[in-house]
Task: structure prediction
Amino acid sequence: MALQETSTENELRLLASLALISGLLPIIAINAAYVLAALSETVPLCMPYLDGCTSISSTGRTHPSVWIFKPVMLLTAVTMAAFFLKSARITGPATGHRRDALALLGLAGAAALVLYLLFLGTEGPAYRLLRRYGVTLYFGCTYLAQLLLARRLSGPRSLLSARLARWMLTLCALLLVLGLASIPISNFVADKDRIENVVEWNFALLMQLNFLFAWQAFRNWNPGPD
Result:
């Protein structure tokens, strides 16, 4: 029993580390790429979270920022996939579709991120379509995986973990509001680019913060029986 508990504690430490990396790497990559792109004058200088003067893709597909953005985000896709696979095993039931849903959604989000990165910087309508599908699936599948994970973390394993899970659910609600708000903006607003960019930057940030809440939740997760 002691060996099993120690093994579980080690797995939880690894899981917390994966959550931390999955949250921090995109924040570093996106913001560092924007600073480099702004300094090289390939994108406007502004506060993109408020002004929406450029998109995340625009900051990551030009030189020299592409050399930070693509490799770091590819590493993020790997850590995300590992995080959701392990979190599905740790938090899910021994059998049942819910465990599979968390793992599959997490893997789908990571694969979509790779698809988006592979075609980032390419030209042509087909490539633009693949990039759009990639980033949409990345955001959508990762959001749903985080929502499922937050629901599982809200159980009785730890009061602090449950409180952090409620914060994750709150962030998921905000992400849903942003996602729904983008639909009328895309279809009915004439000068929509800046607003869409603001939504994109803040959606990405909130999603990354959810990984950081998961990091703290797993650090305080009780590996003992319910």
The mean pLDDT is 86. The longest helix spans residues 2-39. The CA atoms of residues 29 and 68 lie 6 Å apart. The chain has one domain: 2-219.
